[in-house]
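> Could you send the SDR family oxidoreductase prediction when you get a chance?

Sure thing. Input:
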Amino acid sequence: MDINNSVALVTGANRGLGRAFAQRLLERGAQKVYATARRPETVDLPGVEVLPLDITDPASVRAAAEAAPDVSLLINNAGISTGTDLVTGSLDAVRHELETNMFGHLGMSREFAPTLARNGGGAIVNVLSAVSWFGIKGANAYHLSKAAAWAMTNGVRLELAEQGTLVTAVHLGLADTDMAAGWPVDKIAPSDLADAALDGVEAGSAEVLADQWSRDVKSRLPLTPEEFNAAMGRALAALMAS
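Output:
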């Protein structure tokens, strides 16, 4: 699809990657950009149409779909990371990450699928992570939620193919946002991530590996679990030492 003259809705558009998506969409000629957030007053980007949205609340998701009947591009960006492990961490926190990072994206996709169909098919972008493919102590709830979101994205892609909706999974290592502020390593600029994703949509790509880290992790998936874990351990150690 052509980003120029599209009508896009971005979740979590008040900061970080979501704000970068909304800004680049405007700069690339989108006809309209709905910028959504749980606290709409925190959206400070000129030129967008602001909507309140809590992706974990079905009534809020339904209201957003009713308020934006012209959407042709859905950017599922909103997400959380609680720094929780699976065995010793809070089960409520694990559920919260799944409700936001997987079920929240699924709920948006379900609610907006008829809208996209009416508007010619369009596209859905799900912002995932290289952590979709590997566990990391201290963030395994995030790994679980992103792995589940990856599987969900693959399933939704198959189900919406007949109505002509492209479903693009975007994977990255770390972006220079508040969520990654505690990691003293190289990070992709939010605007570069947004451009990579939007370029992928225009090219009709089902998957975008936005940085070298995500490409390296994906390339290791054919390894055995033992080989994969050893390789990831070395890669993480090298990353932290760089």
